[in-house]
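Lecture 7 notes: from sequence to structure.

We start with a single chain of 91 residues. Read the sequence below before looking at the structure.
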Amino acid sequence: MIRSFADDDAGFVRWRDTHPDGFIVNHELPPKPSYLVLHSAPCGTLAGDPKGRGTNWTSALGKTCGDSVTELRAWAQRVGGDLDPCRLCGP
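Now the structure, written as tokens:
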């Protein structure tokens, strides 16, 4: 099941922390085909709190989360783009 977060850091952090085998797409708000970056849930770029990278997780950039790359790839195609893997975690 796909879940999207915008202006909901608590919800995003809860999802991230309870889905350690899941995946997260970082995207603009609203999502644009040109920026859909796929991360594994435990990726270091999305770990801890966002200080040093901004003041929050989900205001400037939304997060769309899912348990499989397949379902997130289908979501990205509906947005009109494709997923770009994170350079750090490379899912």
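Residues 69-79 form the longest helix (11 residues). Keep this in mind for problem set 3.
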